[in-house]
Amino acid sequence: MSLLRTTSIRQRLMRIAAAVTVLTLGIVGTLFVVNDVRMLREQMVRDLEVLSAVVGENSLSALVFDAPDTAEKNLRSLRQEPQIRWAVLYDRAGRPFARYVRDPGQHPHEPAGSGEGVFLDVSLLGLGSVEIVRGLALDGEPVGRIFIHAHTDVLAEQLARHAWWVGLLLILTLAAALLFAARLQRQISEPILRLAASARTVSRGGDYSLRVRPPESDDEIAILIDGFNAMLKQIEDRTAELRDANAKLQQLAREICIVEDRERKRLAGELHDSPMQKLALAQLQVASAARHRDAESDQVLATGVELLRDALQELRTLQFELSPPLLYQEGLGAALRWLAAQTAQRCRLELTFVETGAAEPVRQELAVVLFHCARELVYNLAKHSGARRGGLELHHGGDALRIVVSDEGRGFAADRVGLREDAQGGYGLYSVRERLALWGGSLAVDSDGSGTRATIAVPREPTAPAEPGSAGRDVERATAIPQEGSA
Question: Distance between CA atoms of 337 and 393, rounded to whole angstroms?
Answer without folding.
Answer: 9
